[in-house]
Each structure stands twice: as C-alpha cells, then as structure tokens.
Amino acid sequence: MSELLKNQFKKIIEITDDEYDYILSHFITKKFKKHQFLVQEDQVVVYDYFVLSGCIKSYYTDENDKMHILLFGTQDWWISDYEAYYFKKKARVNIDCLEETEVLCLSLENREKLCKEFHRIEHFFRKKTNRRNVALQNRILTLLSSSAKERYEKFIQDYPSLVQKLPKHILASYLGVTRETLSRLYSTK
Amino acid sequence: MSELLKNQFKKIIEITDDEYDYILSHFITKKFKKHQFLVQEDQVVVYDYFVLSGCIKSYYTDENDKMHILLFGTQDWWISDYEAYYFKKKARVNIDCLEETEVLCLSLENREKLCKEFHRIEHFFRKKTNRRNVALQNRILTLLSSSAKERYEKFIQDYPSLVQKLPKHILASYLGVTRETLSRLYSTK
DNA sequence: TAAATAACTTGATCTATCTCACATTTTATT
DNA sequence: AATAAAATGTGAGATAGATCAAGTTATTTA
Q1: What pLDDT score does B151 carry?
Q2: Is the per-residue pLDDT at A149 higher than 60?
Q3: By C-alpha distance, which of B136, B149, B145, B137 is closest to B175?
Q4: Given A5, B32, B79, B135, which is the most exposed site by the fewest CB atoms within 10 A?
Q5: In what order do the strands lie in the sheet with B37-39?
Q6: Does the predicted model carry a pTM greater than 0.90?
Q7: Could you check: is the Cβ of residue B33 within 7 Å of any atom of nucleic acid strand D?
Q8: What's the CA A128/C1' C13 distance, rounded, in angstroms?
C-alpha cells in the first residue's frame, strides 16, 4: 500500500517490507472533505498526520478573528499542533482542509511505542524533527529580515506548486500580510 | 563535574553516573570572552553548544548590515547554526558572546556516535528537538499575530531574567523592531 | 443555470513602525 | 582619570503595510 511513507522512511533509515507492514499497522487512514477539520481549537489533539494527498492548513485565529497560517500540509508532509500533541494540551490552532485530503494518523502512544521498539524509528523521527527545526528557523529569519514582497518571492521560489493551488488570501495570511497588500505586490511589479 | 547537563539528561532519560562520564567524554569544554565568536558566517560549524554559564546570541546580518537575532543562549540552553551543523554547510549566522561564556561542545560525529550507542540518548535528543520545535512555532505565531508592544511584553513574561542582562538594542533586534521603537514602547506606557 | 457565497482587485485614507539626526548617558579602554 | 566607544532617548518626517469601502469576477451549491 502507501509507498509514500515507506519511501520517506527509506530516505533516512533501512526498513524491511515486513517491518514496514508492522509499523503501518500503528497508523490509521482517514479521509477528509474540503473544509473539514482535523484539529479544532481547544480540543484534544490525538494524532500527528502524514498527508497522502490533498492540502491542509494549520492556523491560529487571533482576538480580531484574523487568521494566521503556521503551516501548510501537502503530500509527504507531517502536520499537527505539536505543542498540544506532544504535551497533551488543548489545541491552540485549527487544522482544516483546503481540498479533499487523505492522511495517515499516528497517535502519540503509537509513536512512542514504535520509537521504543525500533531504535531506527526513533532515529527517523529525530532526523525529521531536526529538519523541521531548520525550516522553522529559516521562516523566523525571513519574517525578521524581509519585506512582504521579498517573502512573497521567496515563497514562490520555495513552493512553486503550492502557489498554484492556494487561494491568495490564504497565502497572504501565511506571509503575514493582508490580502489587499498581497494583491498589490504582484500587480505593481 | 558539570551537573547541569546531567540534570538535563535526567529530566528525560535514565542515566548512570558511569554512563554520564562516558557521554561527557565526547564533549569538550571551551571558554569564550565577551565579543568572541563561537560561529562565524561562511565558516564550517563544527559544534552544537551547551551553555554552562554566560550568555550568547545567534544572529543574521542582512544586506544593509542590520542584525536579526534568532536565538539567545544562556545557562542550560543548546545553541548552534543547526542548518550548517546538521548538513555540513557554511554558517549563515554569527554566534558571539554577550558576556564571558563557558560551553560544552558536541561535534556532529560524536552526537551521532552517542545516538547510535545509546537508544536513550537518541530519545533524549528527539525529545529536546521536539521542544525546540514548539518554541520556534510559537515564535512564528507571535511574529505573525502580535504588535511590537505585545511581543515586548510577552518577552518580559517569558524571559524575565534575560530582559535584565540584555542591552536594549539587542532585545529590539530579537523582537524585530528598531531600537528607537523599542525605546518608545516602554517610555510611552 | 440561477442564486448565493467566496475570492480578488483597486482606491482613499490611516497608522505603526522606520529612518535620520542629534543629544545624553553609560560602559570600555589607555 | 581621561578619552573613546557603545548604548540609549527623543524629535520630525517618511513609508510600508493596514484598514475601510466598493465593485468585479469566480466558484459553489441548490
């Protein structure tokens, strides 16, 4: 079945087909329709999600109902509210679908079980988390040091395929500008 | 010797004194004076640093020579340019000392060796990185959704002891505002 | 396929924050 | 202790980006 996750493992660790089957048995598959929620604010976060297909967004809504996007999830990405997931808190963010989306769901208990049973799986997740770290750090750098226009152009470079499918006001909210400003950025070349 | 690191391990994993001695033998100790560099832009990053005492900053310098602070390191914190460290690239940031600082240095080779030899150490680093991830995510959230004043007040709440020892223009650059603006934020209560 | 809803654009105005300039205070250095 | 070098404060003016408002174009949904 899903070769996507297996391939992601294989980029970092060695894994037999039998092992993979066993590991996969710790995940459950879910399908969500457009606009459906995977995670809702103030609720418990049971899973980390590995995206098989589709596209989802994780966002925080402030006092003025303004949405701030933390992360997109497309094929091959992991996404969750990690603070809530790891530390069993209530979610601060919402995660919902920009289009029909299929995910593999891993509970914290199963994640820790697998990490305990397979040193290699723990290794895999450590490496993954390291990379996420680097990406987050770089986003902070960009937010601190670049103008709205520069951030927009960097996004196009980094995620050309995402730019296609994202509504502009969603992209704006990821970049930290209003939709009006974003609209002006690419008209006023 | 250094109980600091041992205690940090013990918060997450079990470890005997003998094991700790062995692990510690993979670190080297270094002392730096104020203004000395631990990491310099465009150079190789050999170590991840665990701060025993003192205070350091990690910052990026943009085309206009404006400094943007990514991270402070004080007692009990790990700090490095992780993109350069993990992926053996040249550093994008500088890391230097705000005061005399003593650190434990861990090379990537020794880190990976320890992770291979002790499943528990790999577990420790995974957990640590998870927490760092959450902190970085929250900083992004703050940068996206809060005003300069709100960010300043949050910093005071989160790191009261750091506010004391940091020069204001350094704090400003962490918060993503100019020193002039920061100065006005706390005069115009 | 019409009606309703969501997405996008553009103009006019407003505002938080930046820039530049200079004065004052604090901290290093000889 | 004297001098140089950083750090800080404050005013005046500039500006990137926000807000508010209205109109247009897509995309859903019934």
Answers
A1: 97
A2: yes
A3: B149
A4: B135
A5: B37-39, B94-97, B55-61, B67-74
A6: yes
A7: no
A8: 47
Residue pair A95/A80 in contact (Cβ under 8 Å)? The answer is: yes
**Site of tokens 């049973």:** A117
Closest-approach residue (CA) in chain B for A118? B119
Hunting for tokens 């499943």 — which residue is that?
Answer: B119
Tell whether A64 is within 8 A of chain B (Cβ). no
Nearest C-alpha of chain A: how many angstroms from B119? 6
Q: Over the stretch B115-138, which tens digit does the pLDDT of each residue have?
A: 999 999 999 999 999 999 999 999
Domains of chain A: 3-119 (2.60.120.10)
Contact B162, B99 (CB under 8 A): no
> What number of CA atoms fall less than 13 Å from residue A182's CA on the CB side?
20
Average pLDDT for residues A167-181, to the nearest whole number? 97
Q: What is the pLDDT of residue B164?
A: 87
- Contact by Cβ (8 Å): A113, A26: yes
Mean pLDDT confidence for A24-50: 97
DSSP state string for B32-87: E-TT-EEE-TTSB--EEEEEEESEEEEEEE-TT--EEEEEEEETT-EE--HHHHHH
- Contacts of residue A189, defined as CB under 8 A and 6 or more positions apart, other chains included, come to none
